[in-house]
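protein under study:
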Amino acid sequence: MHAFIFVLRMKKHALLLVLYLLLVQSMSAQFLMDMIDTSKVIGKSVLSVSQRFENIRISGYLQPQFQFAGGKGIKSFNGGDFAPNVDNRFMIRRGRLRFDYVHFSDNKKPSIQFVFQFDGSERGVFIRDFWGRLFENRFKLFALTAGMFARPFSYELNLASSDRESPERGRMSQVLMKTERDLGAMITFEPRRKDHPLRYFKIDAGLFNGPGLSAPADYDSHKDFITRIALKPLPLSKIILSAAISYLDGGIMQSTKYLYTTQTRNNIKTFVVDSSANNIGRIAPRKYYGADIQLKIKNRIGFTEFRAEYITGKQTSFANTSETPAALPADNLTPFYIRNFNGAYFYFLQNLFSVRNQVIIKYDWYDPNTDVSGTEIGHPGSNINESNIKYSTLGFGYINYITENVKVVWWYEKITNEKTFVPGFTGDIKDDVFTCRLQFRF
């Protein structure tokens, strides 16, 4: 009997908590307290719950969409590959629910922040954020973040999917840092005083496992060092300027002695193997250098905005892909391939008629191997395959912000690949994608 009564009480308090958390999303906690009759049992219960959970915020969004592709079963970085015999599909691209908790010290300064976010769709449920942050309040300059969170590299990688105008991040961003997040710890320098001379600067620096959420666990002891030095949005009359530089110094432990790099042999570009036994246990490099800039210009109907980012460096992966490996080869025989790469993206955004209507043009490219191009790829006598092909994407679309909680996106991507000697890639393949997406947000 006592257990039964305990369960009933737990259910009642859980219901009260959910009711309160939903209500505070649309009204202030003080207004809600004014509406509660604390002379009644229900009023006293809600007041007790609110005092314990007033620093919790719940947010989320849902992105159902329809897509039409240029061919059946195409490989795509716009929501994932299409299934065989499928050239159109309905899908839930993202369904996010996020919980934020902030604890304030006695002098009303933030001391701890905790975030938990997961993503649900027809493909399953996955954790996306699970981290805590500790604020330093003596000088109001520093914070320590630890857990699972977005790596501090690149502007596009750290722009939330609910805020980003294009449906997906560029091909380069997805290849180099799949799922954007990793496990690690980071120190942040960000002045919180409004009169601090460096208040427009932010510096993040941290150590991370390296493979990101695409790997079930870390597969070596080597950690990635990532840092980003940013100029936060700086108002200059009608112009808002922001910019940053990013650096990643990482690598992968070599479990095999075989290591391939691009060289020229007999006037043919090819991968050449280094099979020194000393390679075993060494760190094959992953080094990225990035720079980005954003310029937002206010006009009488809204804003005109330009964004650009360029990333270059070295990437270690396998023969048939340039993606960051999710696991080391089990046979200790599969070789690593080191490639020089570069890529960039450019955005143009313009409000039409009002801030509720926006047109977007985006161009990006990703070249996984800058040492080869065109018909050097797949050339007879070389061993350079389709994983070294450069792709360029021209995307353009229109967004209608129906309300502050609902928007609809129409987006078309024209994808162009290099013409090579590789069978199936001697011309441009038909992999363009049209996307129509609704986003509901609270």
